[in-house]
Amino acid sequence: MRHLAERPSFPRGGRAERRRPPRRQGALWRRGRSLPARRRSAKRGPSSGSGLGPVPGCRRRPPRTMPTVEELYRNYGILADATETAGQDAAVLMDRKQLKHKDAYQVILDGVKGGAKEKRLAAQFIPKFFKHFPELADSAINAQLDLCEDEDVSIRRQAIKELPQFATGDNLPRVADILTQLLQSDDSAEFNLVNNALLSIFKMDAKGTLGGLFSQILQGEDIVRERAIKFLSTKLKTLPEEVLTKEVEEFILTESKKVLEDVTGEEFVLFMKILSGLKSLQTVSGRQQLVELVAEQADLEQTFNPSDPDCVDRLLQCTRQAVPLFSKNVHSTRFVTYFCEHVLPNLSSLTTPVEGLDIQLEVLKLLAEMSSFCGDMEKLESNLKKLFDKLLEYMPLPPEEAENGENAGNEEPKLQFSYVECLLYSFHQLGRKLPDFLTAKLNAEKLKDFKIRLQYFARGLQVYIRQLRLALQGKTGEALKTEENKIKVVALKITNNINVLIKDLFHIPPSYKSTVTLSWKPVQKADAGQKRASEDTTSSSPPKKAAAGPKRDARQIYNPPSGKYSSNLGSFSYEQRGGFRGGRGRGWGGRGNRSRGRIY
């Protein structure tokens, strides 16, 4: 088992060598246990570090004993006087071969073998004179490392606090590697010290610090890997631009791609948060790079298995990460095509990865959000037909009436407004690219059937819109913030959206000019001359308040009851978006046992 001080600072080798090694048993290190004897003998001999042997002509020194507090202070004084005289120039001390100075520093290094008082002093004195004795660098770092592993928490904290002073030159990546492993501490004060130490060496050499962090992310124990990733996701955004240069951001992207070869779902989300926050990836080409990364993670070239919850989960998580990246210049075509060809035909057989999630609605909402940014599609007519057929499933024909005009059946069809909003919006967006689909691509009988369904749905829609407006009439401020009224506000948004889209399709020929804002997205001000997205619910409900629309993560389903234009307004059920928020470690099946380096 390798010790943390001996870990390589950077991942080496090509793709094959970057594959994570078999899981080692136990942690890399444990507090309260001595460092392996192998490391002591390898690191602390007189010829370690720079390779210099004993000073010629000097007598062999007697075996060292543990220094007392008085001896530590005395030797500290010798070194303090010498460094003041030498003007802080380490070369002066070494060139004169003043053995007593080296011996004085060795006494301080031996302080780590003493009691609690000696260790506390050693933790402060070792880093103070570290730069003056480069040939004892390894011994000094190892001595400080012993203190970082001490049983006494106060000694550990003092030793960790001083670690950044060792981060000079080639030692910095090694110190970053050590600090990254120390993130596994469960002591909150100690953990904060490690975070602060990492941030301080980030400002000395960001690339070197990242090398130590990514070394542990790629090769470290699970707890270290997890905390290193979270450190990056929370702390990178706090660093100033002069630290996160373009070169540093390119290094982050390169190393992140290596990590993304083997990640869990939660880790993937965190890395997308890291990468999407980089300034160099805010451009169109940068966003396109991120979309390609997500598409690779989503395995869009593979056959979709609707009965595999991990397969479904992976697609949902990846698509959620891709949606914010799409724009008029960064197209969603590849994802929309995959959803139309592979997901929509299997919508009813999807296996939900999270209990309580309406997986079908979740998929339809993602498709609706992406459809606005779809570019030129190779099989547009075929995919539009699949989308149209799925829309028909949720737009029932009117029930047959008996001779007396009463309903011949037992119940009216159930109008699923939330599903129809998504499907109708997606069809409306893609239909713009093939405006003659309803007139030239459908036969007269199918078009007639579709208009009957639209008309029946629109009649029911008008009833619910009137009821919702009546229920919300006169309500302002706090009254709109009750759970019941928030539900009604969103329901009114959904029904208004559907109403606008149906009116467009009733035109001869069908029109695709209206613009609506999906009910779960914040309302944006309409441009001058542009049709309103949907009607306001009340004059006092600002568009970006919670009452006017749910946050992105709040899933609301409006299912009006069956029965002809019932006065009952139906019900919502709140669903949380995200397959990994219920617990840790669930993501895509874990890591490390798939031939491609990823396991979902």
UniProtKB/TrEMBL annotation:
Query: What segments bear the compositional bias annotation Gly residues?
Result: 579-592
Q: Where is the composition biased (Basic residues)?
A: 30-43
Where is this chain primarily localised?
nucleus
Tell where it localizes: Nucleus
**Keywords carried by this UniProt record:** Apoptosis, Nucleus, Repeat
Q: Does the keyword Nucleus apply?
A: yes
Q: Name the SUPFAM superfamilies for this protein.
A: ARM repeat
Q: Which domain of life, per UniProt?
A: Eukaryota
| Bias type Polar residues, positions | 564-574
Region labeled Disordered — which residues? 1-65, 527-600
Stretches assigned to coiled coil:
none
Kindly list the biological process annotations in GO that this record carries: fibroblast apoptotic process; negative regulation of fibroblast apoptotic process
Record InterPro entries: API5 (IPR008383), ARM-like (IPR011989), ARM-type_fold (IPR016024)
- Please report which protein family the annotation says this sequence is part of: Belongs to the API5 family.
Task: Supply the name of the protein.
Answer: Apoptosis inhibitor 5
- Gene label: API5
